Amino acid sequence: MKMRRKTVNLGGMRASTRVMAAGTVVKPMTAETAEGIAAQEFARIVESHRPQIFRFLLASTRDMDLAETLTQECFLKAHRNWKHFRGESTAMTWLMRIAINLQKDHWRNRRLQFWRQTRINAVDLDEASEWLPSGERTAEQQLLAREQVGHVWKAMEGLSERQRTVFLLRYVEEQELGDIAVATGLSEGTVKAHLSRALTKVRAALGGRR
Amino acid sequence: MTWKAENTGGMADAASDARLEEALKNFRQSVHAWSDAACSRRRTEIRIAARGGWRLASAWALGCALAVGGLGTGLYQHHHVEVLARIKAAQQARQQQLAAQQRAERADENLLATVDSDISRTVPAAMEPLAQLMDEGESQSTGN
Questions:
Q1: Spatial separation of the C-alpha atoms in residues B66 and A63, rounded to whole Å
Q2: Which of A26-40, A195-209, B23-37 has the lowest mean pLDDT?
Q3: Do B32 and A145 touch (CB under 8 A)?
Q4: Inter-chain touch B27–A128, beta carbons under 8 Å
Q5: What is the ipTM of this complex?
Q6: A15 falls in which pLDDT band (50, 70, 90)?
Q7: Cα nearest neighbour of B35 on chain A
Q8: Which contiguous run of DSSP H or E holds residue A25?
Q9: How far apart (Å, rounded) are the C-alpha atoms in residues A185 and A97?
Q10: How many other CB atoms are found less than 10 A from the CB of residue A186?
Q11: In this structure, what DSSP letter does residue A124 have?
Q12: Exposed site from A40, A163, B7, B42, fewest CB < 10 Å?
């Protein structure tokens, strides 16, 4: 098979070998080189953003295997569409948007198949509340913290899909409202409204004012 | 960042706000801890699976080598037994041939002996006086 070597047009100049005034020869960037750089960049992005995507999906689904599968799918989809990513938002926001859409598709498909079993592999609230960082806390503080975490998980059960997504992005991933709006495809006002409703429910679960 | 930016409704209840803020912080830390633990567990599993995979591949390779060796040995044995059987059959055939030949030779010898004895002893009646004379002459010569 005959291999064709393509060249990339750099800054409006023809991608032939250019000789600079000082006599330095600048080799043209070939398509292979550009692809290699893009692949390296993508690998770096996977490495840096994978934990966050996985964490968001884990908190959304409470299912480690499902979160792992959806994370894999997310990066596979991102890899396929990497050349279309124009940098209008951050890579994290772009990846989060893919993850949110995948998660939505997953639940929709599961509901169509057998809606009663959508949470069959998810861990229960008590198990999810067990996880606490091993800081310097007394047993009483740990118990209180566990109780609070349990209440928040319980409140999350009662949130709509959008409220839950917005809540997690804001309070677990600590994203800005603008980024959440881009990732979810909602306006900032809608994001604020969802957050407010979610907070009201969480506060109620914690036993505060309604 | 705090939750207060989004909190637009009603009078602020300081205790409730503090509790909410603390709960959200604990929740965030809990999810982070869970996720980190899950990630590290997954990495360990992958490492174990990779090691297990290597072991499995080695076991398969060893198993295949043993199977091929066993099969080869079996085939060689079978071939060897066949060759031995052929040699043995050929030897038996040769022995049988030799025995048949010897039997035939012995039969011929017997026949010739029988013929000889028959010829030597049976004298026609017309030659009987001559034969007696020969016998007498022989006895006289031996008596002298």
A1: 43
A2: A26-40
A3: no
A4: no
A5: 0.75
A6: very low
A7: A55
A8: strand A25-26
A9: 8
A10: 17
A11: P
A12: A40
